Fold these 3 entries.
Entry 1:
Amino acid sequence: MAAGTKRSRTDAAGGVSLSPHKVAKLALEDERVSAPKRGVNTVESAGKFCTHEVAWPETASSDDSSQSLLPPTAKAGPAAKEYAFKLDPFQQTAINCLETGHSVLVAAHTSAGKTVVAEYAFAMALRDKQRVIYTSPLKALSNQKYRELYEEFQDVGLMTGDVTINPNASCLVMTTEILRSMLYKGSEIVREVALVVYDEIHYLRDKERGVVWEESIILMPKSARFAFLSATIPNAREFAEWIAKTHGSPCHVVYTDYRPTPLQHYVYPAGSDGLYMVVDEKGTFRDDNFQKAVAALTESSAAAAQDSKGKGSKKGATKDTGKDKESDIYKIVRTIMERNYDPVIIFSFSKKECEALALQMSELDLNDEDEKKLVDGVFWNAVDCLSEDDRRLPQISALLPMLKRGIGIHHSGLLPILKEVIEILFQEGLLKALFATETFSTGLNMPAKTVVFTSPRKFDGGGFRWVSSGEYIQMSGRAGRRGLDDKGVVILQLDTRMEPALAKEMVQGAPDTLHSEFHLGYNMLLNMLRVDGADPETIMRASYRQFQTERAVPALVRSLAAAQAQYDSIVIEAEEQVAQYAGLLQQLERTRADLRAVVNSPKYCLPFLQPGRLVKLLNPPAEDAAAELAEQESDIWGTIINFERMGKTQDSSEEGTAAKPARYVVDVLVNCADRPAGGPRRAVQMLAADARGSPLVVPVHLDRLDGLSSVRIYIPKDLRLPEARIQTLKTIGEVQRRFSGALPLLDPEEDMSVRDSDYSSAQRRLEKLEDALQHHPLASQPDRQARLQALARKQVCGEVVRLAAREVQAAQSLILKDELKARRRVLRRLGYTDSDGVVTVKGRVAAEIQSADELVLTELIFNGVFKELTAEQVVALVSCFVWMEKGQGGAKVRDDMLGPFGALHEAARRVGKVAVDSKMQLDVEDYVTSFRPDLMDAVMMWSRGAKFGDVLRLTEVFEGSLVRAVRRLEEVLRQLIAACQVIGETDLMQLFQDAIDKIKRDIIFAASLYL
């Protein structure tokens, strides 16, 4: 149990009644509460289950924490909202928690009905004349929720940065960034808030924006209560304990694995013609079916390879004529339609692939004539607000025929108005197949009967990776419409790139743990320093990341104690003497390595690497010291087959460069250990010739040669035959027997003509060390080897103890402490704070900028760069701060922007150098080049009144990506106006306002269909 929380238990005898009115009744006619177990209630109703527990703060009295899981008192009076249907146990339990004035975390599968809790929170606020805030991670989701909530409650406002509607309403829908900004500015609205609904709280683990959730939760007034809505998370209790500790009030966890519509999971092996059910509606994994699917994949891929080979071998072969072979995705979608499993969402993780897959459906027509007319009407009613030129955009004209056939596309590259049209059509059942990226699974309440995964591989900013089991659960949860389908269907397309074990883990896996991605930012620090009596360390200590770190301390302490006990248990007789002897052995090995480095240099050894020469070899380094000692006991001999030069040498003729020595690899036939099937891919372990193994020709670097013999043997011309290798290995063994294991070696000085001062000095050291070892007291001890191995084990244990102690120390200290010091140094050296840490005027300006690099923009303001620009040039320059998508790069900067762009890079380089000097981990050149001019021409042309279609011709980006960039550009310009207001720069304020006026028009800023 974590510090700061107390578990409570429930006496379930006779049921539980928590309130005199209907909504607050937990014990219904057919509802039962199980006997308490470890502070957890299991609530069941009509076969539906949910678990419920509560985390109490340390300040809770013993009387409070010993009460039932649901406190026994609640406000008397009418229910805030009545429902026409019977609530599920998790919905009822969560509502009871809200009625008692406590916080609650509701963790349930996608489409389980978590929205009921949010609706009830709004109804409570209106009933009790309080203010409630609903916050979501996406502007599109906020717009949709505003529409839904406004239709029911009326007294609802919206604040997303782009749009502000009725900001004084009792119920406000906003993005989390807006909420955080209001908290830092001490807005009157947040002081009045009684309840905050955080939808999709698992977004807290987002690397870039998750920290915003933590900041807003920490900064919320202590009087506020929370309703957190999340997909299933295994550590929900831990999160509730953090909330209880941070806000000093109980936080309940209502958790359910129950799905209103059960799912069946299928695997479709690429190239095959069948589906294999691998998880049934009861959640049972069918391993036999899974193995059949893997076998079918192997068979189809082998057949495809053979077919390809056969075609390629025919001279003058031409492409098949007639109808092309149907693609896998086409066969899957056709099968779904034949079995009436539509509507279907096909998830792909690439915008281009989404469109390519949708185009493969050209022969499918899934809508009847009436549905086509409806699609046509909805589409043109929606785009009617656009200008005639915009309605002729390729993306708009190309999409309508596809939509009329019942096929849609949904990804971030689409124009926002088209995405909303597609969402509306899908909700109305006018789209039967929707090809979508991952964003469609976040928050939008649009379930389907079937979900298909094409290739569950995604780019996460740093590289490509397979989708985690938690992400798979989140997206597959879209399958199965409550009240419409008796089951949902999930199909995973399995190809040869995905390991079967990975697919199995994905389908069977558990939800992703909710972890903190808390990190520091300059805007956060400046805003914290501006608040009276606040300190950045305060928010760091209160963060979920710090809580999780401290929570790990007891386990780390136990690990340290166990490691220390193991270390103390290894007792070595005369340990100091043994350690001294081991030290001499290490020096001896280093000296021998120095000798080998000289002798094995290409200058001396290449003339002697003839085929058939016997060579003494060193094994690759062992994984631990004890194994290293064991591996050194016997000599390993092989025979040289060939040698070759590795890589290219650097041209020494280039000025300022030194020639790099060429590296060589020797192919040696040697006896090798048989690697166990499925074993780790470790460097080949070589064995003595008489040990059990397999003769293999392996490449060996020169530095692994331990001696060249003067003996050469005959080797067969063709060593590809196992018999030839075995016979050669027997010959090596016979030579060793004739020489009684002591094969004659080439003398480096006499035979190889080594003349080198380094060799001579190393030889003298070697002789001294060998003499010291020979006369050492341990040399005559019979148990010497055992004591050395015991010492090696103890040294390994000692290293484990040191690492464990370091982990305990790190967990007990403040997270990111060194980074905080470094960032404070940066702010002080650049003049954003004074020597006492007080925020200067420059710092107050930077604190207003949240959506772009605050330091570089502030430097440009104070350097007077913007004053010399026109509004169009301002738009072009600021575009370098908002474009983050992966692109071709190398865009040419127009002549009239060379000066401002150079000033931008100069300011970025100065900030980067100060950051590096302040001990920040930063690559200055990468930081400078991150401000890219890719959109300069496009946005400048747009600001001069060009048509959207003409602007698109200047860039290769998706229409939706360009819209998003310009909207973010407008957001940054608004923040620059607020920043200039701090210093009274009215001329700059007007310049930035003119820039906004020039870009805020037409299709890019078309109003949302939800508003």
Entry 2:
Amino acid sequence: MAERTRANATTAKFGFGDERAGADLRAAGWWGEDGPLPDAERILVALGRSPDPDLALRGLDRIRQADEDGWPQLDRALRESAVLRGRLIGVLGSSSALADFLVSLPGEWRRLADDDTPSAEYAAALREAVTGADGMTLLGGDAEQALRAGYRGLLLEIAAADLGHLVEDELDWPPYADIAGRLTALAEAALAAGLVVADAAVDPGPDDRLAVIAMGKCGGRELNYVSDVDVIFVGDGDPQVTTKLASTTMRVVGTACFEVDAALRPEGKAGALVRTLDGHTAYYQKWARTWEFQALLKARPVAGDAELGAKYAEMVAPLVWSAAERENFVADVQRMRRRVEKHVPSELADRELKLGRGGLRDVEFAVQLLQLVHGRVDPELRSPSTMDALAALGTAGYVARTDASELEESYEFLRAIEHRLQLRRLRRTHLFPDDSETAELRWLARATGIRPVRGRSAGEMLRAEFRRHVQRIRRLHEKLFYRPLLESVSKVPTAALRLTTTQAASRLNALGYAAPDGALQHIKALTAGVSRRASIQQALLPVLLDLLADTPDPDGGLLAYRKVSEALAETPWYLRVLRDEGAVVERLAVLLGTSKLVPDLLMRAPEVLQLLGEPQRLAGRAPDEVATSLRAAVRRQPGVKAAVTAARSLRRHELLRVACADLLGLMEVPAVCAALSSVWAAVLQGALAAAVRQKEAEAGVTPASIAVIGMGRLGGSELGYGSDADVLFVCKPAEGVADSDAAKYAASVAESVRESLGAPSQDPALEVDTNLRPEGRSGPLVRTLASYRAYYERWGEVWESQALLRARFVAGDAELGEEFIAAIDPIRYPAGGLDPTKAREVRRIKARVDTERMPRGADPTTHTKLGRGGLADIEWTAQLLQLQHAHEVPALRTTSTPGALRALPDAGLADSAEVESLVEAWELATRARNASMLVRGKAMDQLPAQGRELTAVASALGHSPDEDPGEFVDAYRRTTRRAHAIVERLFYDA
């Protein structure tokens, strides 16, 4: 055991951690009894410098076992040749997939001892690979197997050239463009070889021609080790033959080399795989969308008929470079950007190399947008290569030279990381390792050429470098588009001036900002100075600007963000949360660009911002838990004023929390209404308890117990953001206290609650409405239980019985509340049901309400409360049926409108389909009413007629801002129209 421990310690000096390392080294002939053999030390040093010494050694041992006869030659070559040593060990220490290839074909290591195959000869090499000994092209599985081996062999050469410098200093570190160019040339050669095989299999006629157009990274000569290769096929001749040529090429190359993706063709996967040149021309001139022209920016013929490919490129060029002039350019760019962003789960956004914030897509999209804007008049910008185009933008003055250089450096760093990750197992991936993956981080760092420095591990160094480059890309993204663009332009000599103020504004306009000049002013105000706050804002704004561009009101959202930032400038954690929590920024942008209520509340309840990164905490808090917490906080306050202030603060917090969860689609209508109703009830409970305590302290006695009965939407737990709290106050005299004294005491308590809650405030009103009490405003504010019972039995009208259908205890003395509910049950659920005379009275009142209360000029088809099929229609229908049948149908004895409606089918009072239509309309009207409040910041029952407010309301209800909001209005009208027809039958005809 001791001897093994010493051996392991010795091998560890060379970077080996595997216990088998000593045995493998001895089997290779590089390790003796006392340690490394002198003539093999260079090999051991090389292994120790590889990204994964254990992986490299294991690969060599596998090759030795697979080809024992050839091992002496490889052993000798490793000892003598630094080139082979560096390239082979570099590959084996980086890629288990290429190690598998070398084991399956052991002699392939000789490729790495000689000069690489020039990329210009890749096509000939792969063509030769698919040619049999008889000179005939191989077919079927033989062709695919031969192409796979040839492709992997050339890929091995490229990887060896890319990695050898990690092991041997005398080997050059090839630039990114060289590796990407060679990978692209290899992909082009594979497509050409696949087409050769397809040609032999299909045997087309002399007039059948096919051109392969590369798109995406292949078109830009910037392929990865593992990439889908996007293509478009252009054919001439028999369409069946050319289609078979294309599909066979895709199958052969897809099986042997990489996936060939033709989804960028006209009409996507639903369109024809091959079109003629005229067919492509007609489609692009009539039907293509802007994103398709942006994709065509990289289109380049790479295989097949050269003449046909050249004609295609000549045809699409003018269309690409005039795309920015299209009338729908802004909307199309927004739509395209949203599709890209939605590919990234928020929890992975910070690790996504390609689509994440500060990732490759930021660079590529920025360059392409500048190309589309300025390439119309400057042919130097018309390159399919991201790096070439960026260099041209810098040379021409559209981008500062230093900015272009830094952006290029960071882009190449991320591409190098991407290449190493894909080489590991030859799998497509763009995900940077998580902080917990220390072994993966160490390997990736070494594979990228990063070593430990001053006590910091290689993984820590890599993580720091990754974050530095991501932050740099975000900063430069901001600089190029938003912040100091006008200042940069002013420094360009007049003779070389290419950017204008108009162009600067048009860029923000292209992202959806209706007032670019105002947006530039907000950006300048937020980033002015050299403070830490300004620096963080400079890093945050590009994210916010992009995200706000996808909201219904980018300009209003940016203004709201400025106001919130200025209001919270001294809040120490505010910017830190935005900087460190990507999901918070994304969700905040949605909220600010949609709602006027949210930013107003956020400035006074900033702590809710911290919940945006945790959807479960934002939306998952139980109403009972909230109510308990609010009551406990209020109970600790010394008086009514302090108690109400605390209640307001907590209610503001909850109102904002629910509004955020609602707008973000994290809460359904019933949960929203229940949460708002619960917090309102808790506010009443806290205020009432404080008022009672104060009166007790003043008088020393408690003449009566008091209960608060929720009515209307509060009673039904159906409150909206702008709803008042309809209540009744009921009291019960203490023993020996006269009814009049008890009522007087209770009235003073109730008035204290009502006045303290109704005091002016910046928050949405806390209006306690007692107008549903007996005799309305002319009646006493508080009655005893006996007085209520006597009134309802003697003088109560049918509308009062209807109002009591929603009555429930919400605050105060629970026993008294239960007694009140028991007392009114015979009133609201009359024995024998509602007599026909009273039913007619209900219908008459409803007709009068419809006629007299609809605001002048209101659209009855979009008024959420009083409109046709709106809330009043459905609620009155449910309540009439409750009055008529609840005495014999216990399920109808509920304060909930949807609850009452859903009890109708079992009672035989309505069809299930009718009830579902009514519930759907009620929920839609409730959501629309709530959304209108959130969007406008004030309570309104009428949906906006048009404009951004209507778009925002539609967006709050789950419709994309890109959609025509008229479609939402049409859907609303359809739903409520169906409900109104059912109401006509159930309420009037019945």
Entry 3:
Amino acid sequence: MSTSSPLTRPDAAPTRYFAGDGEHDHRLILAYYVAAVGVLSLYGIRVCPFIAGLDALAVIATFLVAFTAAFGLKLALEPRLMPAGEPFTLSIYQFAIDLALFTAVGVGISLYNHHIHGFPLESGGKVLIGCMMFGIFAGLDNGLRRERRTPSPLDRITETPRKIFPITDRLFVIFVCVGIFTGAVSGLVIVKDIDYLIAHIDDEPHAKLRRAIFIDIAFVIGTVLVLAMRLLWSYGNNLAYILRLQIDGLAHVSEGRLDTFVPIITRDEFSLIAAKTNRMIASLRDAHREQDELFAVSQALATELRLDPLLTLIVATTRGFVGADRVSLFLHDAERDELWGRVAEGSAEPIRFAADRGIAGECFRSQQPVRIDDAYADPRFNPEFDRRSGYTTRSLLCVPVEDRDGRCIGVIQAINKLGGRFDVNDERRLRAFAAQAAIALVNAQLFADLARAQRYSESILRSLTNGVVTLNPQGQIVTANAAAQALLGLDGSDQGSDFVECMGTGNDWLISAREAGREHYLGEVELIRRDGSTRQAVTSRVPLADPDGRALGTMLVFDDVTEEKRVRNTLSRYLAPQVAEQMLANADLNLGGVDQRATVLFSDIRDFTTISEQLGARDTVAMLNEYFSQMVEAISAEHGILDKFIGDAVMALFGVPFPGEDDADHAVRAALSMQERLVELNARRAERGEAPLAIGIGLSTGELVAGNVGSPKRMDYTVIGDTVNLSARLESATKTYGVSILLSDATKQALRGDYPLRELDRVRVKGKQQAAVIHQLMLPAEQLAPAALEQYSGARERYLSGEWAEAAALLEDLCRAHPEDGPSATLLRRCRRLAEQAPAYWDGAWPPPENG
């Protein structure tokens, strides 16, 4: 049995309570049995004149034995007869059991006196009435006590009883029962005694008999009144106990003890108050727990500023917060106007869809929660995601994630409530959590932007060839980029040190450099470093201030004007920057001409002559500048070296002057990037109403000669050889085959990565005896299905073996299915020509030898 306070919820599972299990006190009913023995014995011995001559011990013994037996039966049978139930039901059973036992005692004594002692039945009737009177009062009093002493089942403490008996009705029933039985007992006793008095009116002594009868009546009425007062006191005690429970419960709640509950021990208005109080406490407890959880979540979110771990934390916390099986966080991509699952449980790849599509899109656009109990019954739900993942979505809850300005930045979507459906409380909890998550996301984004800006600034400082030093208002070094450290002889340990002390004596220009308040050009000064060496630099001072104009310090900018800087600037005008840097870094580098292996990229604008005639000179130059800017960026991003511009053509080198194992891969990626940038360029040209551009690209890998070529007055670092010529011819062949990028077989063999390649042809290059195998690097728009590629390969096998008619039949089917495929159309025309006029000699290379 639970030993906890009636106002404290035990941690154990709900317990059922039974009579006789140690929770109910039998002392009260024992007192009633003792009182019944004493009152009825006294009534029989001292009051009732008919049995006044009986032996007192015999009368007492009769009642004592009878009530002792009844009490023993009560202890033995009551646990089996008393069912499980709430206190009010148990009190009714308690009343019935006690009344039955007292009645049984009265019936037993009456029959015993009638059959053994020969008493008349009317005398036994008095005994029966007296026992029943005690039984009614004892049953009501003991029932009220059980009502007070028996806790209600703990799994129903917040339920409202199905049927309510108002207090007024209960009091009315009690008073009616007491009144009826008291009146009946008193009336029967008085009538019987008056009848007895009238029957013996002439007996002597009459006064003594009359006094005995009056004493009899007074004794009975007095006993009934005493028992009635005791019953009213017991009922009032119950009411006081209930009120005390209510008051104590509210006092505990006011003290913050939300583990309190008020037992429901009646079916009257107090049960309604207790049930509502318990529901209130449960709501407060849930709200307090929810508040604690939300506070803990807020602390966790506030301490995580890295965006990716924060997103994972939000999803994991949301799942436990609302009891969902899966959770996804969709953020808004403003550039594409799409929602994408930065963290989507159950999806191996990020999910992207239009911001106005599906249930998440509806939630994002309306900025209102969306709760769905049956996803497949809602037309907004897209079951395609379930088909991909094999997951079944049953219920959904989506809430918008809004920043502090009310702008929706994403959607949190909880899927499949565990153990039921999402309700209003889940919606409210998730909205509160989404508000906290939005703040954390904004803070994390700001932190990421700040970190990105800091990295960007640091990157700028590192990439600057000019030396930059920033000082705080006290003249201490805050930052010094690599160029400044190399120029001034500083290192990382000087950060936070006084700049003048770090530079040492002899630097008179420092007096002007430390002055703050305005920008100042110091001109060319001599820098005396700590090791005593000197450097020349053009120096300027720029004051630093915050947006409010408060001074933050000073920035010093040093432009190195030493001989090395002058040489670097000069070389950069004639050579690619990479070549110039490596020349300065590697004094032994021989640029006079070396044999090495490299990859050459050659590109050309299609129909450039026509375009230039239409545009005119000025617009042609503007178009070329815009085009070359994009192409050079694509080449530089892949560590390529721009060799030269040849009209509208671009020649780039990969692996010169220092070759690498992945030069061919860099060249291929540069070619793909050039085509991608061309698509973006054409989009901008279309917005301006200008015609699109198309380019062809050829790639060739092989041995070539790299070095300085030219006259003593004008040298140009370049490459020459068959590899260069082949790349130019491959670029020209892109027009013949109707493709964008062609590469040589040597380039294909040198590739380390996987790319969408297709072997196109074997061609005879001018000046070369051996035919060259060429391959197509397919762009996304040029790629074919595996079956189509296999069909093209089969046609080429027949073409190479001289079965031109069969090859033409396969190619005709392929061209009908893919009319945009240039290589198929080219090979089909060639097969038809060869089938009509076969060459004298055929080795599979095109064109066939003229003399066989």
